[in-house]
Specification:
With 212 residues, the chain is of the alpha/beta class.
């Protein structure tokens, strides 16, 4: 859902998507994107070709759009303008050579300090929006760029909340490459749980427990 919120504010209007990592997280990411952007075409990328093929087939059926499989980012369509990285990679694989001007990248997989998906120079040369700056600096792709000495926390344009609230402008021109460094935040989990709870109450679903 955080990817969808970021994409709503930062991504191009028509999404030509490349999904790197084709597990369950990829399915959730693509379904979230489809809520805020019309999906034009999808490229599935995974080290496991069988997994990528299965993902592409399922998503083509679900969304009724063209899906293809590529062995790596360099093989994705040149007009790709939305990238989602949701892998357990420990060495970056998406770099400057792969991403065209105007693109949006949701970097989702780096949820601990050992994981990395995005080339540090790509972050340093383009626009970074963080879920939470402090957390991204400690464990996201931003963390690696800082460790490499190519950027600092002060180089992050904004946190996503700043853009939603309108206190900081997200995309300032159509050619900007914007990376959303998404490490997940507790408040997002609490908000999602609250929605589930309210819907359960409204539909009389689930079981009630008295812990008094």
């Amino acid at each position: 859902a955080a990817t969808a919120v970021a994409a709503k504010h930062l991504a191009p209007e028509r999404a030509i998507v490349a999904i790197c990592g084709c597990g369950d997280q990829a399915r959730a990411q693509l379904r979230a994107l489809a809520c805020v952007r019309p999906l034009v075409r999808v490229t599935a990328i995974d080290l496991n070709a069988e997994r990528a093929t299965r993902f592409a087939r399922e998503m083509a059926t679900e969304f009724g759009i063209e899906t293809t499989v590529a062995p790596g980012p360099r093989d994705a369509a040149r007009d790709t303008n939305v990238w989602v990285t949701c892998t357990p990679a420990r060495r970056w694989f998406l770099g400057r050579e792969h991403v065209t001007p105007g693109s949006f990248i949701a970097a989702v997989g780096a949820d601990n300090p050992e994981k990395q998906e995005i080339e540090p120079a790509l972050l340093a040369e383009d626009v970074v929006v963080a879920g939470l700056v402090e957390q991204s600096a400690a464990m996201g792709d931003l963390h690696h760029a800082i460790d490499d000495g190519v950027m600092g926390r002060e180089d992050v344009r904004a946190e996503l909340a700043d853009i939603i609230a309108g206190t900081t402008k997200g995309r300032r021109d159509a050619s900007e490459i914007i990376i959303f460094d998404s490490t997940g935040t507790a408040i997002q989990d609490v908000a999602a749980a609250a929605v589930v709870y309210q819907r359960a109450l409204a539909s009389d679903a689930g079981l009630a427990f008295d812990f008094g």
